[in-house]
Structures are given as C-alpha cells and as structure tokens.
Amino acid sequence: MCADFALASGFVTVMALSRLNLLRPLLLRQLRCPLVVTSRLQQPPPLPACGLRLYATKKAKAKAKGQSAKLNINAALVEDIVDLGALRAEMAAVVSALKDDFTRSLSIRTSLGALDHILVTTGDGKFPLNQLGQISMKSPQLIIINMSSFPEATAAATLALRESSMNLNPEVEGTVIRVPIPKVTREHRENLAKVAKQLANKAKESLRRVRSGAVTQAKRTKEGHSEDTVRLVEKQIQQLSDNTAAEVDKLLAAKTKELLG
C-alpha cells in the first residue's frame, strides 16, 4: 500500500510540474508586459502663491534699480567735508535763474517787462535795456524805446533786440526804436520751445559745474576721513545734483506745454 501511495504522489508531482511548464510562457509574457491599470487621478491642487517664483519685467527691474540708487543724504557727514548749505543754495540759484529766463524770455505775449532782461553790449560793458532806454507801449502791437538818454547805445540796443529769442524786428528813427510785436504763429511757438530747451541745457551745465566743484572739494578733504567716506559723500553730492536736474526737466516740460499749447 505504501508503494501505491508513493506511486500516486509521484504522479501528482509530475502533473503539477507539467502544468507549471505550460503556464510559464504566460507568466513570462505578463512580467514583460505588465497590465496598465488606468484610473482617474485627481489633478494636484495649485501651489500656494508663496511657492511661485515671479520673474520681474525689465521695466520693474529698471524701476527697482532707480530706487536703490537713491541715497539718504547724511547732512552731518556731508557738512563735515563740504558746505551742504552752500551747495544747495548754488543749485537752487541755478533753478531760480532758469525760472527767470523762462518768464522774461519765453513769454508768448510781449509786454514791457519782457524787454527788460535784454542785455545791450556797449563800450563800457553790458547793461539791461531798461537802464539805457525808456520803454513804453504805444499800442498792443507796438513798443517804443526812447534812447535819448544814451543815444550812442541806440545801434547796440537795436542789435540786441534783433538777436534776442523773441523774433523781434526793430525799426530805428533817430534815437527812438520802434518794436512791432510779432503775431503768435505756430512757428514762433516752436522756436520759443527750442529756446526753452537750450536754456534748460545751460542750466544743467551750470549744475554739472557746481557738482564738479563740490566733488573736487570732497576729494581734497581726505585728512581724517576714509576713502569710503569720501566716496559716499561724492555719491550724495551726485544725488543732490540729480534731484535738481529732475526739477529742471519738470520746469522744461511745463514750459514746453505752455508754449506749444
């Protein structure tokens, strides 16, 4: 009976191995090509705003650069090396002179005061026109200048009027200069706007001279101060100059708009 059991067990084992051999190709195929299980996956939630990296545009970078370039003026530090009050006064004087030039030289409507600033070159020097002649307005279209007090300066005054930026064409009758007031044309307005720009450029040149003088003074005053301190003072001087130049630009923009209408 033991022999029969052993024979039966051997038969079962052989059958099992045979079935295993039959299933082996299928198992190998499944291992090489695993089944793809599809499922509907939920989209991941959006990242929080703090996790996003925002890239600045060129305009934003330029603005940030301009803001970072501005310095807080340290009055105590600057005044120890340069006279801050005198420096600001010089720059303010440049702006004030530009305002005066705009008011006197670039008025669309000619008036008596508009001729006062004109400088007349004589053998004794340069003098304002209103100190050499008596200015009066005969009509809204005509200004009369009586040069009887200084008749020798009549020709020089006439030349100064012609060479002014006011588009004047004076006529001389003895010691009397007749100045017809020109009509306000578009061309005249554009010419005045060009003169305004020239005056603004001259004001900026004056600012550069003031700034250059202050920087030179700062470089000379190195005793008792480190190079870094002097360099910082130079940057602050530059900042003052830039602020004043921006004020000049604003005045020019306003005047140009007024002239061109």
List the main descriptive attributes of the protein structure presented here:
261 residues, alpha+beta, Topoisomerase I, Chain A, domain 4, Gyrase A, domain 2, four-stranded antiparallel sheet, two-stranded antiparallel sheet, 10% strand, elongated, disordered N terminus
User: Could you give the order of the helices and strands?
Assistant: HHHHEEHEEHEEHH
Give the number of DSSP strands.
6
- Tell me the strand order in the biggest sheet: 3-4-6-5
Our count of helices gives 8
* Sheet with most strands: 4 strands, antiparallel
CATH class call of the domain at 75-106 and 185-260: Mainly Alpha
| Helix residue percentage | 55-70%
Mean pLDDT, all residues:
76
Unreliable segments of 5+ consecutive residues? 1-8, 33-41, 47-56, 61-69
Overall structural class, as computed from helix and strand content, comes to alpha+beta
Strand content range: 5-15%
Task: Indicate the CATH architecture of the domain at 75-106 and 185-260.
Answer: Orthogonal Bundle
Structure description:
- One of its GO terms (biological process) is translation.
- Keywords: Cytoplasm, Mitochondrion, Protein biosynthesis, Transit peptide.
- 58% of the residues lie in helices and 10% in strands.
- It has 8 helices and 6 strands.
- Strands 3-4-6-5 form a 4-stranded antiparallel β-sheet. Strands 1-2 form a two-stranded antiparallel ribbon.
- The termini are far apart.
- The relative contact order is 0.11.
- Mean pLDDT is 76; it is low at 1-8, 33-41, 47-56 and 61-69.
